[in-house]
TrEMBL record:
The lineage of its organism: Eukaryota, Metazoa, Chordata, Craniata, Vertebrata. It comes from Pavo cristatus. This is Phytanoyl-CoA 2-hydroxylase interacting protein like. GO terms for cellular component: cytoplasm. Residues 92-311 form the Phytanoyl-CoA hydroxylase-interacting protein-like C-terminal domain. InterPro entries: PHYHIP/PHYHIPL, PHYIP/PHIPL_C.
């Protein structure tokens, strides 16, 4: 029997199964393999011919799959003779493309809300972290590879190197909140030190984790840096003066910054940052572990922050 399995297109998000044999039935079995957190997909579908049969399944990005097919031929007496399973084909689907990320970006824009002023970026860590940076890295925080939090299929997870910063403010004070999930010590730096006309801004991700909070990941990369080159190929670029999440503009010779109030922004800066650019101090608030996004899993059922390609 001739059964052709097509792993669809450049996006590698669909599988097409076609059979050109007449008077046959076929079954296609497909499973997401090697990734325990992706549910195994068992597609069993018997389709009577004669006609060209086209099975069509949407796959998750960045996932390894196996696919195998089986055919059945109808005999004169009306019974079917079923073939062995075919050779198993293994393949891995690609990360989200810029097209997918642009769809995600448009969904994030819908809920971003109005813009509030900000003046600093900040990064909370434990005291030991800052001691280590001073003693072993010559006072400069070093980029590290981003964990797997956020959207499954995000092209920055496990690949982009950067340093996480926050930039949220409290609406009543205009200052960063005193609480943080990431440690009692905070490095605070004037916004223009990290974000200015010499940096590019990219949209990285949009997700939630089974709560009401939505997170938007942005990447700031100095123009021409390795991080900038990485992002240019993979992420939608934002106009630094005009976007719904984080803006930088000049008013009367002074840089003015705004951030979206209805999403929690996490900013990844792709170059090392010297501690002498800002200040390190202990916060007076609490350590709210529940708001940590370290390796957090995205809620795949949320309609606000999921696009349809991955299901
Ligand atoms: Zn969501």
């Amino acid at each position: 029997p001739t059964v052709l399995v097509f792993v669809g297109g450049q996006r590698l998000t669909n599988v097409y199964v076609e059979s050109y044999m007449l008077s046959k039935m076929f079954t296609c079995r497909m499973a997401a393999s090697h990734l325990p957190d992706v549910p195994t997909k068992l597609v069993a579908k018997a389709v009577p011919l004669p006609m060209t049969v086209r099975g069509h399944w949407f796959l998750s990005p960045r996932t390894e799959y196996t696919v195998a097919v089986q055919t059945a031929s109808k005999q004169v007496d009306g019974d079917y003779v079923v073939s062995e399973w075919s050779e198993i084909i293994e393949f891995c689907t690609a990360d989200y493309s810029k097209v997918h990320l642009t769809q995600l970006l448009e969904k994030a824009e819908v809920i971003a809300g109005r813009m509030l002023k900000l003046s600093v970026f900040y990064r909370n860590q434990h005291k030991e972290y800052f001691d280590y940076i001073r003693e072993h890295h010559g006072n400069a925080m070093q980029p590290s590879v981003k964990d797997n939090s956020g959207s499954h299929g995000s092209p920055i997870s496990g690949k982009l190197e950067g340093i996480f910063f926050s930039c949220n403010t409290e609406f009543n004070t205009g200052k960063p909140p005193q609480d943080s999930p990431y440690g009692r010590y905070r490095f605070e730096v004037a916004a223009e030190k990290l974000f200015n006309p010499n940096t590019n801004l990219y949209f990285g991700d949009f997700y939630c984790m089974y709560t009401a909070y939505h997170y938007v990941i942005l990447v700031i990369a100095p123009v021409g840096s390795p991080g900038d080159e990485f992002c240019k190929q993979r992420l939608p670029q934002l106009n630094i003066k005009d976007n719904k999440f984080l803006t930088c503009d000049e008013e009367d010779g002074v840089m003015v910054y705004h951030h979206a109030q209805d999403v929690i922004l996490e900013v990844i800066y792709t170059d090392p940052v010297d501690l002498s650019l800002g200040t390190v101090a202990e916060i007076t608030g609490h350590q709210l572990m529940s708001l940590s996004t370290a390796n957090a899993k995205k809620d795949p059922s949320c309609k606000t922050c999921n696009i349809s390609v991955g299901r």
